[in-house]
Amino acid sequence: MSSKPIAPDSGLQQLVDAGYEVEMRQQHLLVHRVPYVTADKQVKLGMMVCLYLQSGGSVIPPDNTRGDTHQVWWAGEYPCFADGKPMSQLENEHTRQELFPGCTIDHRFSNKPFGTNGYQDHYQKVTHYANLIQAQARVLEPLATAQTGRLTIAEEGTSVFRYADTASARAEIMTTSARLAMEKVAVVGLGGTGSYVLDQLAKTPIHEIHMFDGDLYMQHNAFRSPGAATAEEIDARQFKTEYFHGKYDAMHRGLKSHPYYLDESNVNELQGFDFVFICVDKGAARKLIFTYLLAQGIPFIDVGMNLQLVKQSMKLLGSCRVTIATPERNDHLEQCVPTDDGDEDVLYRQSIQVADMNALNAQLAVMRWKQHCGFYQADFDTNNMLFSVNMPSLARQVPTVETQP
């Protein structure tokens, strides 16, 4: 337990000084032990929760214009007047839900001081709601108060992010986002598509993201990967894994660089991973990795792109593919994925890549992974997706269900 204040704090230090039991977790401010009256006229203790958003090291005040609002959540029974009638002036919605792991609320309140549009800081916001609610408890128990003086300010645990994920907090999807918090995920191959996969994974709460690639980051890579490399960064001739580690370490703490290819001598380094993205351009390497992951029971997604130049029109046509395999369903791989370097349909057979197709290939792959994790709803258990740029269209393959005669 710590009484260390956080500055700038948008009124937090005032709450501490006033004796409120406050805690910061997952971009939310929790106010514990607020006395209230239940419908059967008992005095109980509830918890008030509101957004506590940070931006650039500062706390955003709840002014109802910059992402925070004048509303709060409540964990407990609905507060009533001293006579047991509900406090209707607080009412907004009644939905029990988990705001983020470890924090479940029962109600949402909406109330503002008369003649105002919002609150200047969190002290004003918390005390307004607390005074309304606990005033009724004091009718029955005159000494009831949320200002217990018991400090419960909690330091945030070490996050995978260098700065807080305020996007998920503002959207109220912290619990859903937590489903993506796998321990170890690998991206094998950081070319055009693999680098965009990394870009998206770095914005998720995966604990460790391992990058495998033995290539150097060259000038042509700059035109088919996220962001904008400087001329100096290109001239440095870094390994791709080191270059991207330098870029994304500014956001995500859990990046691990492996500046070499996977082969028969080291493919066992994938042991113990929760998920693997395979973004390679060699059929033999893909087959080796497939074989190992299937034997280990590790789910994975393989991506592929096939763009060709039609010389008569000097236009490009082709497709990008996303294929998922799990220990339960993988018999479609041979049909969907080329694993022979001599195959006519081998990935990148004309070595044509374009950043937008690379990015789309990666986005489809990450979205399919998020469905696998339960982040997105999946009405169809799609094994294979193929986007054709010349149509444009997205074809999907779902597993067939055998019926009993």
How would you describe the overall organization of this protein?
The chain is α+β, with helices and mostly antiparallel strands and 405 residues long. It folds into two domains: 12-164, no CATH class; 181-397, NAD(P)-binding Rossmann-like Domain (Rossmann fold), CATH 3.40.50.720. Helices cover 25% and strands 24% of the residues. It contains eleven helices and 18 strands. The protein has an eight-stranded mixed beta sheet, sandwiched between helices. Mean pLDDT is 88; it is low at 1-8, 343-349 and 401-405.
List keywords for this structure.
disordered N terminus; 405 residues; Rossmann fold; 6-stranded antiparallel sheet; elongated; 8-stranded mixed sheet
CATH topology of the largest domain: Rossmann fold
User: Which structural class do the helices and strands define?
Assistant: alpha+beta
Number of helices: 11
Instruction: Classify the beta-strand content into a percent band.
Output: 15-25%
Order of helices and strands: HEEEEEEEEEEHHHEHEHHHEEHEEHHEE
Shape: elongated
Radius of gyration: 27 Å
CATH superfamily caption of the largest domain: NAD(P)-binding Rossmann-like Domain
In spatial order, strands of the major sheet run 13-12-11-14-15-16-17-18
Strand runs, count? 18
CA distance, first residue to last residue: 65 Å
- Total domain count: 2
Domain DUF6791: 11-166
Organism: Achromobacter aloeverae
GO molecular function: ubiquitin-like modifier activating enzyme activity
InterPro entries: DUF6791, ThiF_NAD_FAD-bd, Ubiquitin-activating_enz
